[in-house]
Amino acid sequence: MSKHRTASPAGPHGPxxxxxxxxxxxxxxxxxxxxxxxxxxxxxxxxRPSTAPNQVAGSSVSSEALLQAINLRKTYxxxxxxVPVLRGVDLEVRPGxxxxxxxxxxxxxxxxxxxxxxxxxxxxxxxxxxxxxIDNASTRQRDRxxxxxxxxxxxxxHLLPELTALENVLAPxxxxxxxxxxxxxxxxxxxxxxxxxxxxxxxxxxxxxxxELSGGEMQRAAIARALITEPQILLADEPTGNLDGRxxxxxxxxxxxxxxxxxxxxxxxxxxxxxxSQADRVVQLVDGQVSGS
Length: 293
Ligand code: ADP
Ligand code: MG
Description:
Blueprint: H1 31-44, E1 67-78, E2 81-93, E3 98-102, H2 109-116, E4 124-129, E5 132-133, H3 139-148, E6 150-153, H4 165-177, H5 179-199, H6 215-227, E7 233-237, H7 245-262, E8 265-270, H8 273-276, E9 281-286, E10 289-291
Helix pairs in contact: 4-5, 4-6, 5-6, 6-7
The structure holds adenosine-5'-diphosphate and magnesium ion.
Magnesium ion is lined by residues 109-110, 237-238.
């Protein structure tokens, strides 16, 4: 979908957090990139066509958003039962912001995040990322997008149990590079993965498997894995949901420093208002709609 592929190393002696994106990747976030994106967005700017009852009249593609949901709807069907979960969600995520979406258990937070991450498709509505509509992209385009531009972390980490922390972080690069290219560049990529693991505080845990890590450490490894492809946005589903208060706070502080020092855009969904309140902006998911965005 996009040409902002990010294969350059952060360098083995890089600073603690910034920059996550290398110079060679200065497309993402650079003025030139912003201008190109704005032009692309202006070209596609138009008013939403659907006229469903819940929608806010006139919601349109924003030139200021990095990621935008317009009138998203999703209903799960199980046999005769229909569970309407999202009933016209409008959301605008601006570049460089740390946004929290708060909502009770079952309010549709994971559903929304999965749609934004192109892991699932909405029944209706649109999702725009970087000036391109992505909800209706082909499966191949969506796979590429997820492999290169969207990072994701989850409540239960989803690390591969047989791989060490370092191998887990390297795994996405094997996919983006392909076997041969990965072999050729392996030394450099390993250095990059090590640097990232140092950044998230796991310098001493490179060769530990997930079962040999604490919950907080597993989440740190998952964050490093999500960032190894230098994504433009990190989508986090209850990143502190399985951690005790203090460990969760440590993860929140790591996310905040990645946001402020590396200008990483983050959307985090959580039911924890103490965690959410540390974001730049908090919106609420209630009755299938977002308020306060
Ligand atoms: P949250 O993350 O806010 O706890 P979810 O997005 O996981 O909420 O779920 C919202 C609602 O949708 C819940 O009532 C849940 O039971 C239902 N749901 C989620 N996924 C599915 C599915 N695959 N099939 C049927 N119902 C689902
Ligand atoms: Mg959830």
